[in-house]
Design goal:
single chain, 361 residues, mainly alpha, Hydantoin permease, globular, transmembrane helix, YkvI-like, Membrane protein YkvI, transmembrane
């Protein structure tokens, strides 16, 4: 159970930066629709539990070190190749987004130039990815318990101190701020986007774990746990809708309202969440291009990180408004392949399955 919890926490750690670290993500896909977004948040949590379990299981069966073989297996050779290319590019896009987000964080909270936060994020991410996989899992899991406590506390505080009625909140809802015209489509886009974000790292986590049962349980815990975070955070944002509606980083604003010291502490925590996702994205992107035991793997991480740093100056809000919804639409075929694979591959222990090995690049 301990190993499953560690995997579940690591999965949440991978998703957290792109999923709701800044608060813009949850607002875009859930809170901007009003209270009906709560239904979408609950649906998402259930879907993530099932999807994360299945993707991790496939990675475990195939003992893969990158997402390529799994995506080709579940989507077919031709569609799989297309999605492989798109997802690989997307992994890099999320990395750029995380670097840009850290710059915005340093600007909003500390009044420092964005280049400081972005550069620090790139350096720490490169150093961490050049560690081995077990160390990366430990890093990814580290912030999850602290975040859970923080989000629960924020949710309770926001509900107890809100001055808004349900009618007032609904009157402030602006459809132009939403990711899609309808809340259900927005929910499906979020599920698809998060699945696409974590797919590569989920397969790697599954492939690096010996027992399939541990991966299955970890996937469910990670998916449902991530859904709980979304629900709690959505409630917190709704309770302070009038304050967070036009803010780049609502999370930071809500904690700063509690106390300047809490705002400072949360800024550090958000940086950690962004860092977690940046590590997952850089590692997943890099292992798709070069095996981790390749002599040039670490050097290429430096090149990739440097390019991400340069592209991050496009701007956090512009990037998040384009990259996340776009990948939501593109990820629908991937979701379809995962659902089909559930019926194609029966639940069996990995040791009873023929192991599909990868050829050395």
């Amino acid at each position: 159970m301990k190993d499953s919890l560690k995997i579940g926490a690591a999965i949440i750690g991978v998703m957290i930066g792109a999923g709701f670290a800044s608060g813009q993500e949850v607002f875009l896909f859930f809170t901007s629709y009003g209270w009906v977004g709560l239904v979408g948040a609950v649906i998402s949590g259930i879907a993530f539990g099932l999807i994360f379990m299945q993707v991790g299981k496939l990675g475990n069966i195939m003992q893969t070190t990158s997402h390529e073989k799994v995506i080709n297996k579940i989507c077919g050779r031709y569609l799989g190749n297309v999605l492989d290319i798109v997802m690989t590019v997307y992994l890099f896009g999320i990395l750029v987004l995380m670097v840009a987000g850290s710059g915005t964080l340093f600007d909003q909270q500390f009044g420092l130039p964005k280049i400081v936060g972005s550069l620090l994020m790139v350096i720490l991410t490169i150093l961490s990815v050049n560690l081995n996989m077990k160390n990366i899992l430990t890093i990814l899991a580290a912030f999850t318990p602290i975040l859970l406590i923080a989000i629960i506390g924020l949710g309770i505080y926001s509900i107890l101190t809100t001055n808004l009625t349900l009618v007032e909140i609904e009157s402030m809802v602006d459809p132009s701020q939403s990711a899609a015209p309808h809340w259900l489509l927005g929910t499906l886009l979020y599920i698809s986007m998060i699945t696409a974000t974590g797919f590569a790292m989920l397969t790697v986590i599954g492939g690096s774990t010996e027992k399939q049962k541990i991966v299955n349980h970890g996937g469910v815990l990670g998916g449902v746990g991530f859904g709980v975070f979304i629900v709690l955070f959505h409630i917190a944002l709704m309770s302070k809708f009038d304050q967070i509606q036009y803010v780049e980083m609502p999370t930071l604003l809500l904690f700063a309202e509690l106390s300047p010291w809490l705002g400072f502490a949360m800024a550090i925590l958000i940086f950690g969440m962004i860092f977690n996702t940046a590590v997952g994205m850089l590692y997943s992107f890099s292992v798709r291009l070069t095996r981790p035991d390749h002599p040039k793997f670490k050097l290429r991480n430096v090149y990739i990180g440097g390019i991400a740093f340069l592209l991050s100056f496009v701007g956090f809000t512009k990037l998040i408004g384009f990259i996340l919804p776009a990948m939501g639409y593109i990820g629908f075929p991937l979701i379809g392949g995962i659902i089909i694979s559930y019926f194609r591959f029966k639940e069996k222990a990995r040791e009873k399955q023929p192991v599909i090995t990868e050829q050395t690049n």
